[in-house]
Amino acid sequence: MKDGKGSQKTRVVEVYPIMKGITKETLSYFTTEKVGLGNFVKALVRKREIQAIVARVTDAKMEKTNLKNASFSLKKLSKKDILNVSIPEYFMRAVDKTAKFYATSTGSLLSALLPKIMIEEPKTFFSPPNPKFESKLKSSISKEIALLQMDTDERYGHYRALVRQCFARGKSIMFVVPTHEEVLRAEELLSRGIEEYTFIFSLKIKPKEAKESWGKALNKNHPILFITTPSGLAFNKKDLETIILERENSRAYNSMFRPFINIKTFVKYLAHESRKQLILGDSVLSIETLKKVKEEEYSELSPLRWRLSTSPTSIEDSTDLIKEDNEFEIFSPALKNLLEEAMFNKKSVFLFGARKGLSPTTVCGDCGFILPCLNCGAPVVLHSKVNGKELSSNDNPTENIYICHACGTRRDARTTCGSCNSWKLVPLGIGTETIRNRIRKLYPNQEIMIMDKAYTPTESQARNMAKRFNKTGGILIGTELAFSYISKADYTAVVSLDSLFSIPDFSIHERIFYIASHIREMAKLRSIIQSRNIGRQILSWAGLGNIIDFYQSEIADRESLLYPPFSLFIKVSIIVRGVDLEREKKYLEKLFNKWEPEFIERKIEKAGQINLSLVLRRPKSGWPEDDVLERLSLLGPQFLIKVDPETIL
Hints:
Layout: E1 11-17, E2 27-31, E3 39-45, E4 48-59, H1 64-69, E5 75-76, E6 82-86, H2 89-101, H3 106-113, H4 116-120, H5 122-125, H6 131-138, E7 146-149, H7 152-168, E8 172-176, H8 180-190, E9 198-201, H9 207-219, E10 225-228, E11 240-246, H10 263-274, E12 277-282, H11 287-294, E13 299-300, E14 313-317, H12 333-344, E15 349-353, E16 361-364, E17 381-383, E18 401-403, E19 410-412, E20 425-428, H13 432-442, E21 448-451, H14 459-472, E22 475-478, E23 489-496, H15 498-501, H16 508-522, E24 523-531, H17 537-544, H18 547-561, E25 568-577, H19 581-592, E26 598-604, E27 609-618, H20 626-632, E28 640-643
Parallel strand pairs: 2-5, 7-12, 7-13, 8-10, 8-11, 9-10, 11-12, 14-24, 15-22, 15-23, 21-22, 23-24
Antiparallel strand pairs: 1-2, 1-4, 3-4, 3-6, 16-20, 17-18, 18-19, 25-27, 25-28, 26-27
Helix pairs in contact: 2-10, 16-17
């Protein structure tokens, strides 16, 4: 590895391996070839050739001491190992900053952000390195984030005008939505008249079509509109000037698996590092985003609508409904009238249920114990059948089963209380199946559809149901899953949101307001919000489309309690046996004692296990903090780390 006279310069190259099962963040090699940050390379790991991405390049002379003391010799990257394509440097910087924010590794975040199809065929999706472009980028100034808050129809009108303005300046625009269905909807709403210059990307379209769409968009000699899910954020066209993040307040932007991030954070870093204009849009923007516009950190692309003007909505009290046929009534007189009116006029109806199944919670009538999952400890949900399908005439209608929606474990409904062994188990709450069963008694010949994870577990099933509903009407019962597939119905109603009010979480009011506002906006004619919590001001504000009063109340409550966005939560979780609880607790307490940690313990019935969580509260303005990150990096893979989580439960 010595540099002789006239020899080529030797470099030490650190790469992020894109391969599961590698515990090291980076692997080191040496090369005499030219290579830069973001370059794709072929690296040899365990006698297997894998794709890797260059993280750092240093002069071998600077690393001489470290190389001499190393217990291993570096392998060489030859010219054939270095691909002449790279991820833009600004993208890599955004990944690094996001990884630091969420206390995760850059390699794992790259694996999450770059789909498998891009890793396997980088030459199809990426261009050769462009040092001039990167140099010009670094000398330019980042742009202020702009906001758009108004009804969906009006908001898309602004988007169409914005696309025309960008095209007039010779600039392209990227439009990001959380799901594939919303990609298709956005294409339908935005591409009129510019079909030739509109391209879509999603992992749900066929790989061949995805590659063709990406390639055509990249090589088009005209400004384009690129509509994508977060899987296409690496798209880089020289004239790309603006990124729009639609449905900014959607929970679908939160990752469900490691690494735990919110895509919105990455997009903010991406826009900053690439000097692109970022626009955040939604009918009701998040509390954190609204706080920033109030503090003039963000600008308003158009004056924010603090009152939504959509269909008339009434709030109905369901507290004292009369018991019928030995069952609790779940429909208020107003909701029954709405259904009758819709059926008579052959109109479509969307009914929202917050939970799947028959009853979301079962409690013991003797001791009050909530029936948990024997595997993970989460409350179990009562369903009418194992696979969630409707009962046929040959089935026993009393054959119910408990299903855990957290881990999928199933158990027989013929069980006793795990605390006092009583048989007096009482199902509570209203699930989608309960709503269906009640409607069936009122309208036995009416087609009733249910859209939730039990009845429509795949996207194709949900898509087909949505097409049928939009074409033939009828009654559709759905959870939040339906929001990605159904945009409008003649009538809408919230049958019950009450189970959400019982969740002791800092963000639950924001979630309830967003759901109620969304269902109100879906209605073409009128809407009903039904609740046993009629006294809650939040429902009145949602019914009136009153965002400003909700925001002022919610932000004041959070400030008084130092909840986000006035602080940042960090949650560290581990599942331990009862005998190991104190040991793990002391370990975590010692590691994070400086920051006054709080502990949450949740018992898991199976094998006496306990879900132990540590929660830290840090000032958001000062995050990320190097000393906290250093301690978090000491934790093994058995610990789950969530920074700025959606919930701390």
